C-alpha cells in the first residue's frame, strides 16, 4: 500500500512544480520544460525532419540534442552538453521566465545555459532547417543552435571565427574528440589534430608545409565565414570551394568532421534512408595526423581498410584507443643516447613519420646518416632517408619523435633506432591490428552525487515522506567533473617541418608565364590527345614535367570551377596513377602539369618491335588494374576514367604503369548514372563498352570493359580494331573482334588443352611467358569484356584475381588453392563462351 500512496502523492505534487510541458510541437513557451523522463517531450520541426529532445548516450546518461529523424537511426546534428550527460531521472531542459534557456541535471544542477535574459517574453522554436532559435516577442533572435555547431554543419549554417566543428570521440561516443575544423588566425580554414597528449597538436589540412596560396587559399579576407548551400556547394571566405558529387538534386545534406579526422560531405538517400559520402577531404586516411597515435604505423587499402600496428619493439598503450599509440617494451631512448654500441636500426620501406625533424643533411649516405643519429645529442629515435630524383642524391633527416607513421604510399624509407637487445624479440612480419571501434559500446554509468544543500522544501518533504513510509532508498552518487583538455586553437603547434614531402600532394597553381617558360614557349611536343597537346617542360624547381595544354572548348569552364575540379583530381594519389602536380587557369588558358614518364605510353611500347617481355606486360596489367581500382573504389567510385586505352597508360623508367588522363571526363556522380553530362559518348573506338551504344547507364563497369580490351591487347599484341582479323569493316556493335578472336581460339582448342595460349600470346615474346599467369589474365580479361555489365568483375576483384596469382609465385608455395582467392574468381565456363559467340 505504501508504495502506491507514495507515487500517487508524488505525481500529484509534481504537477504545479514541473510547469507546463510542451508536447510534439515546434515551439517551447516561456516557463515550460522538456523532461528527460517523457520520451514524447520533444520539439519537432514543422516538416517533421528534425527533433530536439533528450537522447540516450549511455546507461542512465542523456544529452540534449537535435536529431535528423529520417535516417533509419536518427542522426545527431547538434548537442548542448556533449561532455556532460545528465541523469535519466529528473533532468529538464527549461526556458525560464527570465529568458534563460537551461539544462538542469536531476532538476537542480545547471550544466548548460544560453545565458540570455529578456525583459519581454520569449519562445524557442525548431525550424525546418534544423536550427533551434530563441526569439523574443519582437521576433528577434537571442540565441541559435546554428551559432554553436558540434561536429556537423547543415545547409546555410556558418562556420565563423567563433563557430568551429569539433569531432566526436567515436561513432558511439559523442563527447569531444581530437579533430577541429576552424578558421585559423590567418583567416584560413584548416583541420587540426589535438591528441590525448595535450603537447601534441598539428595542422594536417591544407598541406601544412605549403604556403596556403598553393592550396588555392587566401589569407587576406578577414570575414572568416564558410558555409554550404542546399545545392551542395561549399564556399569559404578563404577561397576554399568544393561541391558534392551529386550537386543539385538532394534534399538533405550535412558536412561532418568525423571521429577519424576526415571531413566528409554527406547526402541523404531517401530510398535507403542512409547517408552517402559525396566529398571528403582525404582519400588516404593514413595521412590524417594522430590516427594511430605515436610510435605506430598506419596502413590502408581498400580491401582491409585502415589498420594500425606498433613499431617493432613497441606495444599498444591502451587496448581501447589507438590514439594513445604505442610505448617501448623494456627500454627507453634516454638510456640509449649515450650508448652508441647498444643501438641498431630497423629498416621500414616506404614509410614516413611526418614531422619532428630535428636536423637535416643533404647528400648523405645511409651510414653517415645513421652515424649522425647515433651521435646526435637530441633523442634521435629514427632517421628518414629519402632519394630525390630531381637532385639525384639521398637526404637524411633526424627524427626525435615518431608520429603520424604511415605506409606504403611514400617514396622514402625510415630506419627506427632500437637497442640491440630488442632485435631478437622482434616479430616478423609486424603484427597488424585492425582499427576497432573503441569499446565504448557499454558506456559507463553516470556517476554523480547531488549536493545536499539547496534541497527545496518539496524534496525535504518527499524525503521525510519516504523515510516515514520506509523502504525507499535514495542513493547518493558522486558528481564527476569532466575536465576537457581541449586547448583552444591559439596554441597550435607551429613546429617547423623540416622538409617538403615527396609523396604528399604537392598540388599547386602555376602562372601561365611560369609554364610558358618551363616549356620554352611550348616547344617540345610529346603527345597529342583529345583534350589537348602535351609538352615536355622543366619546372622552376627542376622537376621534369609533362604539361598538357587543353584545347579551349569550354572544357575548362569558369576558373573557380576548374580549380575545384582540379583540386579533387589533384588529391587522387596512387602509385599507379599519373601524379598531377598542378594546374594553371588564367584567362582563357587551362593547363595541367603532370609528372613526366620516361618510357612513354603502353601504346608506343606495344607498337615497338622490340617488344615488352612477359614480366613487364603482367606488371603493367596489374598496375593498371590497381590504379583503376583506386579511382573507382577508394575514392568513392566518383571518378570514372571513360577512356581506358594503351595511349592513356604511361610507363615510368622502371616500366611501372601509371594511368593518365583520369578525371577529365568530369567527376562522375554515382547516384545519377544518367547524369546529363554523360549524354555525349566518350571513349575510343574499340575500347568502348556496349553501354555507350545502347544508351544504358554509365558506371565504373565501362572502365572495366576498356581494361579487358587493353589486357587482351597486352597478351596478344593485337589492336582491337586492327586489320589482323579475317572480316573487315566497322567494329561490331557489341563485341570487339579481338574478343571474338580470342574466344574462338579458346573454344577451338578445347581438345588439345593449352595450345590455344601459345596461339594467342604475342609471338614477339618468343614463347617466353608464364602459361598459368597468362591464362589467368586471359580469363580475367574475358570476364571484363562481358556484354552484361553485371557479369563483369569490379576493378578491385580484378586486382585480387591477378594478385592472388602473384603471391603464389613470391612465396614459392606449392599450389594450394587459397579459398580467399578462389572466391574472387568467377570461373570461366566453356559453355558460356559458346552461347556468347
Ligand atoms: C513573429 O513570427 C510569427 C511566426 O513566424 C508571426 O506569426 C508573428 O506575427 C511575428 N511577430 C512579429 C511581431 O513580427
Ligand atoms: C549554391 O551556390 C551555387 C554557386 O554559387 C549556385 O550556383 C547555386 O544556385 C546555389 N544554390 C542555392 C540553392 O542557392
Ligand atoms: C570575403 O569573403 C566573403 C564571403 O565569402 C565575400 O562575400 C567577400 O566579398 C570577400 N571579400 C573580399 C575582399 O574578397
Ligand atoms: C654527393 O656526395 C658525393 C660523395 O660525398 C659527392 O661525390 C657528390 O659530388 C655529391 N653531390 C652533390 C650534388 O653534392
Ligand atoms: C566517452 O569518452 C569519454 C572520454 O574517453 C569518457 O569519459 C566517457 O565515459 C565516454 N562516454 C560514454 C557514454 O561512453
Ligand atoms: C562511482 O563513484 C563511486 C564513489 O565515488 C566510486 O567508488 C565508483 O568507482 C564510481 N564508479 C565508476 C564506474 O566510476
UniProtKB/TrEMBL annotation:
Annotated localization? Membrane
Name all Protein kinase domain ranges.
520-808
**Which EC number(s) does the record attach to this protein?**
2.7.11.1
Q: Which residues form the Apple domain?
A: 326-422
Catalytically driven reaction(s): L-seryl-[protein] + ATP = O-phospho-L-seryl-[protein] + ADP + H(+); L-threonyl-[protein] + ATP = O-phospho-L-threonyl-[protein] + ADP + H(+)
The protein's superkingdom reads Eukaryota
List the transmembrane segments. 461-486
**Residue ranges occupied by any Bulb-type lectin domain in the UniProt entry:** 19-147
Q: Which GO terms describe its molecular function?
A: ATP binding; protein serine/threonine kinase activity
Q: Does the keyword Methyltransferase apply?
A: no
Family, according to the entry, reads as follows: Belongs to the protein kinase superfamily. Ser/Thr protein kinase family.
Its name, as the record gives it, is Receptor-like serine/threonine-protein kinase
Q: What is the lineage of its organism?
A: Eukaryota, Viridiplantae, Streptophyta, Embryophyta, Tracheophyta
Amino acid at each position: 500500500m505504501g508504495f502506491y500512496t507514495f507515487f500517487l502523492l508524488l505525481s500529484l505534487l509534481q504537477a504545479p512544480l514541473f510547469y507546463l510541458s510542451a508536447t510534439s510541437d515546434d515551439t517551447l513557451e516561456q516557463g515550460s520544460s522538456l523532461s528527460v523522463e517523457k520520451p514524447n517531450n520533444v520539439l519537432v520541426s514543422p516538416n517533421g525532419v528534425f527533433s530536439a529532445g533528450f537522447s540516450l548516450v549511455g546507461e542512465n546518461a542523456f544529452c540534449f540534442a537535435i536529431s535528423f529523424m529520417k535516417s533509419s537511426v536518427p542522426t545527431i546534428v547538434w548537442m548542448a552538453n556533449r561532455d556532460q550527460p545528465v541523469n535519466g531521472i529528473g533532468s529538464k531542459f527549461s526556458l525560464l521566465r527570465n529568458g534563460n534557456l537551461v539544462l538542469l541535471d536531476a532538476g537542480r544542477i545547471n550544466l548548460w545555459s544560453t545565458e540570455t535574459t529578456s525583459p519581454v517574453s520569449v519562445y524557442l522554436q525548431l525550424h525546418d532547417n534544423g536550427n533551434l532559435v530563441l526569439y523574443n516577442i519582437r521576433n528577434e533572435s537571442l540565441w541559435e543552435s546554428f551559432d554553436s555547431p558540434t561536429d556537423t554543419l547543415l545547409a546555410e549554417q556558418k562556420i565563423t571565427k567563433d563557430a568551429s566543428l569539433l569531432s566526436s570521440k567515436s561513432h558511439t561516443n559523442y563527447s569531444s574528440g581530437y579533430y577541429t575544423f576552424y578558421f585559423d588566425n590567418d583567416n584560413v580554414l584548416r583541420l587540426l589534430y589535438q591528441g590525448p597528449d595535450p603537447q601534441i597538436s598539428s595542422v594536417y589540412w591544407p598541406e601544412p608545409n605549403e604556403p596556403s596560396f598553393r592550396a588555392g587559399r587566401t589569407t587576406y579576407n578577414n570575414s572568416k565565414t564558410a558555409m554550404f548551400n542546399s545545392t551542395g556547394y561549399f564556399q569559404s571566405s578563404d577561397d576554399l570551394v568544393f561541391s558534392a558529387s551529386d550537386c543539385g538534386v538532394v534534399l538533405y545534406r550535412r558536412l561532418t568532421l568525423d571521429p577519424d579526422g576526415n571531413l566528409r560531405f554527406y547526402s541523404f538517400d531517401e530510398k535507403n534512408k542512409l547517408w552517402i559520402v559525396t566529398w571528403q577531404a582525404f582519400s588516404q586516411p593514413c595521412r590524417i595526423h594522430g590516427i594511430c597515435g605515436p610510435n605506430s604505423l598506419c596502413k590502408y587499402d581498400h580491401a582491409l581498410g585502415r589498420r594500425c600496428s606498433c613499431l617493432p619493439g613497441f606495444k599498444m598503450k591502451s587496448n581501447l584507443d589507438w590514439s594513445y599509440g604505442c610505448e617501448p617494451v623494456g627500454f627507453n631512448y634516454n638510456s640509449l643516447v649515450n650508448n652508441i654500441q647498444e643501438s641498431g636500426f630497423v629498416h621500414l620501406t616506404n614509410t614516413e613519420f611526418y614531422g619532428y625533424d630535428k636536423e637535416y643533411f643533404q647528400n648523405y649516405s645511409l651510414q653517415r646518416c645513421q652515424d649522425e643519429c647515433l651521435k646526435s645529442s637530441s633523442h634521435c629515435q629514427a632517421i628518414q632517408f629519402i632519394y630525390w630524383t630531381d637532385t639525384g642524391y639521398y637526404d637524411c633527416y633526424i627524427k626525435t619523435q615518431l608520429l603520424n607513421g604511415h605506409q606504403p604510399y611514400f617514396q622514402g624509407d625510415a630506419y627506427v633506432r632500437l637497442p640491440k637487445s630488442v632485435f631478437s624479440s622482434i616479430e616478423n612480419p609486424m603484427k597488424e591490428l585492425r582499427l576497432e571501434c573503441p569499446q565504448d559500446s557499454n558506456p559507463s554509468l553516470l556517476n554523480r552525487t547531488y549536493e545536499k544543500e539547496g534541497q527545496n522544501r518539496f524534496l525535504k518533504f518527499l524525503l521525510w515522506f519516504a523515510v516515514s513510509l520506509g523502504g525507499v532508498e535514495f542513493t547518493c552518487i558522486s558528481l564527476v567533473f569532466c575536465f576537457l583538455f581541449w586547448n583552444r586553437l591559439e596554441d597550435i603547434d607551429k613546429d617547423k617541418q623540416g622538409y617538403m614531402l615527396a609523396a604528399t600532394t604537392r598540388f599547386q597553381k602555376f602562372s601561365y608565364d611560369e609554364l610558358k617558360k618551363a616549356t620554352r614557349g611550348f616547344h617540345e611536343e610529346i603527345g597529342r590527345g583529345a583534350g589537348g597537346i602535351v609538352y615536355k617542360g622543366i619546372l622552376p624547381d627542376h622537376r621534369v614535367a609533362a604539361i598538357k595544354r587543353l584545347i579551349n572548348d569550354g572544357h575548362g569552364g569558369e576558373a573557380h570551377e576548374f580549380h575545384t575540379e582540379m583540386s579533387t583530381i589533384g588529391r587522387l594519389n596512387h602509385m599507379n596513377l599519373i601524379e598531377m602536380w598542378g594546374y594553371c587557369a588564367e584567362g582563357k588558358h587551362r593547363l595541367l602539369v603532370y609528372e613526366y614518364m620516361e618510357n612513354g605510353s603502353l601504346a608506343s611500347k606495344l607498337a615497338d618491335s622490340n617488344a615488352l617481355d612477359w614480366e613487364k606486360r603482367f606488371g603493367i596489367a596489374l598496375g593498371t588494374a590497381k590504379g583503376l581500382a583506386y579511382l573507382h573504389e577508394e575514392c568513392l567510385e566518383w571518378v570514372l576514367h571513360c577512356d581506358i586505352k594503351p595511349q592513356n597508360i604511361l610507363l615510368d623508367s622502371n616500366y611501372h604503369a601509371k594511368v593518365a588522363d583520369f578525371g577529365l571526363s568530369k567527376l562522375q556522380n554515382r547516384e545519377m548514372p544518367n547524369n546529363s553530362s554523360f549524354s555525349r559518348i566518350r571513349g575510343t573506338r574499340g575500347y568502348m563498352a556496349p553501354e555507350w551504344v545502347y544508351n544504358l547507364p554509365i558506371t565504373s563497369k565501362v572502365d572495366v570493359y576498356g581494361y579487358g580490351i587493353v589486357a587482351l591487347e597486352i597478351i596478344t599484341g593485337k589492336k582491337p580494331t586492327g586489320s589482323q582479323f579475317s572480316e573487315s569493316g566497322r567494329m561490331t556493335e557489341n563485341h570487339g573482334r579481338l574478343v571474338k578472336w580470342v574466344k574462338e581460339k579458346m573454344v577451338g582448342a578445347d581438345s588439345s588443352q593449352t595450345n590455344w595460349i601459345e596461339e594467342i600470346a604475342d609471338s614477339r615474346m618468343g614463347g617466353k611467358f608464364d602459361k598459368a599467369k597468362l591464362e589467368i589474365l586471359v580469363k580475367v580479361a574475358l570476364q571484363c569484356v562481358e556484354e552484361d555489365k553485371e557479369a563483369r568483375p569490379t576493378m578491385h576483384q580484378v586486382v585480387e584475381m591477378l594478385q592472388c596469382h602473384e603471391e603464389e609465385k613470391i612465396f614459392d608455395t606449392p599450389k594450394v588453392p587459397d579459398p580467399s582467392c578462389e572466391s574472387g574468381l568467377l570461373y570461366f565456363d566453356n559453355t558460356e563462351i559458346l552461347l556468347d559467340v
